[in-house]
Amino acid sequence: MGASTANSPAERLAVAIVVLLGLAGHASFAVADSGSAAEDAALARYVAAANEQDTVAAIGHLLDYSILAHGENAPRTALLTHRYGELLMRAGRHREATAVLKTALERSEVAFGEYSEESLDINMSLGYAYGELGRRRVYGFHYFDRALEILRARGERETIRYVVALLNIVSSVADNDGLSGQTTANIVDNDYSAVDGNVTNLQLDYRYRNDFDKVLGYLDEAGELARALADEDPFLSAKVAIARAKLEVLETADLASAPIGVRGRITHQTVVERNDATRDQLDDAMNVLSRDPESNSVFLAAANATLLDIAWLDDDRDRMLALCASGALDSSTQYTADRLFRITADGSVLAPEFGFEVPTNLFDGRFRPTKPARDELGERVAQPYFVPACINGELMAALVNAPRVIIEEFE
To answer: Which among 133, 144, 272, 374 counts the fewest CB atoms within 10 Å?
Structure first.
């Protein structure tokens, strides 16, 4: 390759790496003016992908170049590997992302150390990636716990950053619906006395268990630290309370979804009682955060969204309408227009025919099966359903977990 000009592929490559990795000022990312044929070929593939505006492929080719030019465990290669894994995850290619992020972790531990900032970030990314995969959540917990271990080893446990990490973990696991459990059947030997002697009565004992206890442990730790850090952030305990309320609502819906006759399932009356207690908890937290609504807007929005979910679980359409009409919650930025539909007075969704199965009423999606469908690889298959959404003051139904397919027109 000849000398670089301002618009040469090499120059554009150097700028792209700096911008994409957030490493402004790192001159070491400059591309050599001459290299092997393999390096030149990798650069040519990068230019072609960049011209096609295919960011994921472009970064993949930059990674190929870095491995050739600098080695697999060079700092710049480790950073690029992490970036590539993140882009794959954002593109929905979660299986590939997980494999790439594992490689990024190995390279970063060599390049920067096991307790480095980069290793910390990649462990968190791997936790998120396994959540998106929808299976083997124990692996996600492993990487989350490793990230927390790194913070503790660096003396950062009693910090706001540590509490925020705990809340991010809880939010990620909850948002990915990764805590639902399963029903197990055990043979129980019930011996009892009869007139003619002892009788053995073998029965199946069905029990439902989920994984909410694991995440509640994170929240217990966050709550303890938030109280100790009250001087630094007087709102931190209220933020933890809102995260706990959100999780409690999800667990309530999960337990109510367990099959009838299974131990662990809760009744509608229990649902109402749990939701009432959670609503009181939210009210207290929101009163605290409302002292500075601008700084706490994200958590106040999360609290109002949880209140909407509670009203949904309670089948209280009037409360849902009032919350939307109040303007306290607006979800316009969360959903695209093609996923929003108006509803009738009884909750029926005014939507066209879809090329997949989906409930036709907003309230049918409140309690979903606790045993989701799996594909041939054992991964959870997302089941489309409708959730409530406040859009410009109006209560609407938002379609979630739906594949991006062409929707058939009305007849």
So the answer is: 374
CA-CA distance, 127 to 137, in Å (whole number)?
Answer: 8
pLDDT in tens, 286-322: 999 999 999 999 999 999 999 999 999 998 999 999 9
**CB distance 398 to 389 below 8 Å:** yes
Task: Please provide the average confidence, as pLDDT, over all residues in the chain.
Answer: 82
Is residue 307 packed enough to be buried (19+ CB in 10 Å), middle (13-18) or exposed (0-12)?
Answer: buried
Long-range Cβ contacts of 269-276 (<8 Å, 24+ apart): 271/313, 271/314, 272/314, 274/248, 275/249, 275/310, 275/313, 275/314
40 is written with which tokens?
Answer: 């030149």
Question: What digits encode the pLDDT tens for the residues 179-220?
Answer: 666 655 565 555 544 445 554 555 555 666 667 888 889 999
Let me know: does 372 contact 350? Beta carbons within 8 Å. no
Angstrom distance (rounded) from CA 396 to CA 411: 23
